[in-house]
């Protein structure tokens, strides 16, 4: 079971994503804006962050950049989950340190696939660095 931080200023989006995360058997954590997301990432050290972009205080691009450049949180993969669907937004998000990009609206299976892909990649990387025994 992974701990997944959901950062979104929309209560309905937060509830919908939380429902999917719980259905997958993961523990959801939440923050209501980018600044709170950065603080929660430092405090909770989740396994994955699902980050909205358009939010008050600190937008998702700024929060992703802060998380990906902080030595204490840079290992945490961030997936931007946003209505911003232009290719330039996607490229900019990846340049800020995002590991994935999902545009709203999305289906339960699309979000499930992204979560599985990112968490699976993290597990594969961790396993490849574990020395073989035997």
Task: Write a concise keyword list for the protein shown above.
134 residues; alpha/beta; Rossmann fold; 5-stranded parallel beta sheet; 48% helix; globular; disordered C terminus; Sig_transdc_resp-reg_receiver; CheY-like_superfamily; phosphoprotein; Bact_response_regulator
Shape: globular
Unreliable segments of 5+ consecutive residues: 125-134
Question: How many H/I helices?
Answer: 5
Helix content: 40-55%
- Arithmetic mean of pLDDT: 91
Topology order in helix (H) and strand (E) letters: EHEHEHEHEH
- Structural class by SSE content: alpha/beta
- Secondary-structure arrangement, i.e. CATH architecture: 3-Layer(aba) Sandwich
Top-tier CATH class: Alpha Beta
Q: Rg from C-alpha positions?
A: 14 Å
Domain count: the total is: 1
CATH topology: Rossmann fold
Q: Order the strands across the largest sheet as they lie in space.
A: 2-1-3-4-5
Q: How much strand content do the residues show?
A: 15-25%
Organism: Luteimonas salinisoli
Protein name: Response regulator
InterPro entries: Bact_response_regulator (IPR050595), CheY-like_superfamily (IPR011006), Sig_transdc_resp-reg_receiver (IPR001789)
Keywords: Phosphoprotein
């Amino acid at each position: 079971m992974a701990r997944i931080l959901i950062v979104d200023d929309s209560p309905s989006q937060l509830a919908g994503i939380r429902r999917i995360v719980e259905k997958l058997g993961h523990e959801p954590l939440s923050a209501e804006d980018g600044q709170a997301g950065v603080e929660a990432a430092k405090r909770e050290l989740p396994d994955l962050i699902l980050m909205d972009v358009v939010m008050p205080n600190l937008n998702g691009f700024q929060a992703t950049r802060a998380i990906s450049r902080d030595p204490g949180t840079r290992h945490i993969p961030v997936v931007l989950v946003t209505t911003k669907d232009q290719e330039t937004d996607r490229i900019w998000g990846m340049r800020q340190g995002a590991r994935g990009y999902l545009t709203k609206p999305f289906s339960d299976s699309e979000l499930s696939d992204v979560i599985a892909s990112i968490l699976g990649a993290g597990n594969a990387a961790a396993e490849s660095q574990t020395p073989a025994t035997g």
